[in-house]
Amino acid sequence: MQHILSARQFDQEAIADIFARTDLVREQLATRDGRRELAASHLGEVAATLFYEPSTRTRLSFESAAARLGMGIISTENAKEYSSSIKGESLEDSIRTVAAYAGVIIMRHGDDDSAERAAAVSPVPVINAGAGKGEHPTQSLLDLYTIRHEAGRTDDLKVVIGGDLAHGRTARSLAQLLSLYPNNHLTFVSTPELQIGQDILDHLDERGTTHEQTDDMFGALHEADVVYWTRLQKERHASVAAGRGLRKLLGKKLPAAPTLESAFSINQAALQVMKPATIIMHPLPRNHEIEASVDADPRAKYFDQVKNGLYVRTALLDMLSK
Ligand code: NCD
């Protein structure tokens, strides 16, 4: 494993290796001796986080993971404004520069092809921590790890994926990972304009994973083993519609959102149609598409995903830096 760019690069065997390492990290982090052992394992190494788009969980979990491995961390959040990007430096030149200072680069960027472009010039591993409306492979690994942990399997699952699937990168990466395992059936719930890209559907067809699309949330929920909900990607609608950058739009009132949030909200009524063993997931941040009252339901697993993110990312950094 040289870079982590796309969910498409993984096969079952690679994922089994990552999850075995993740299980070990989880155990190590639970004890003082384990934490000390981990913290001694990558002393003298440096990880760089280069984030051109906002993040809470992804950046901090990677930085926490690096810290737990004993790595030093250099970081630029809001790299769009606080790095030389604003002076006109190309992504490629920034990557060449950061690679001189760090042994691994964890990058989030607004362009779909940014991770591939970075990897093409980087002498050190690049981890795609979210690329435009394209992919977010490490999120999908922690999502799949959560599914394995909570549902006990990664195959033979009815997975209902809902929200803004046209602009959401987490749903796209997760769908691709789920297609590696037999007998998964994916139901995509959204409005027709915000449905998942044809490229993903084609990929599922190639892999023989059955799927359907619907705007009937309640109809989809009652059969689900996994419900994976996502937010409306307002900033991507606005920037696409207005042809302007994210920065200009922040703080301005964004164009009226489609009815997605209200029509597809997981609320008490939705909980009632789900099976007792269904697990409810969300990559976070959430807006109104999962009501806060759902958090107390034992089926809600989105804060478990957050914890698993640290374990999976620690395992990934460990494996990439070997
Ligand atoms: C997601 C992302 O950045 O794509 N967040 C995350 O990493 N957990 C989801 C989102 O922003 O909606």
Keywords for this entry:
Rossmann fold, 322 residues, binds N-carbamoyl-L-aspartate, alpha/beta, globular, 5-stranded parallel β-sheet, 4-stranded parallel β-sheet, 14% strand, 2 domains, 15 helices
What's the gist of this structure?
With 322 residues, this protein is of the alpha/beta class. It contains 15 helices and nine strands. The chain is globular.
Describe this structure in words.
With 322 residues, the protein is α/β, with parallel strands linked by helices. It has two domains: 144 residues, Rossmann fold, CATH 3.40.50; 166 residues, Aspartate/ornithine carbamoyltransferase (Rossmann fold, 3-Layer(aba) Sandwich), CATH 3.40.50.1370. Helices cover 44% and strands 14% of the residues. The protein is built from 15 helices and nine strands. The strands form two sheets. The protein has a five-stranded parallel sheet. Strand 1, helix 3 and strand 2 form a beta-alpha-beta unit. Helix 1 crosses helix 15, helix 5 packs across helix 6 and helix 7 crosses helix 8. It is globular and about 55 Å long. The N and C termini lie close together (10 Å). The relative contact order is 0.15. About 5% of the residues have low confidence. Bound molecules: N-carbamoyl-L-aspartate.
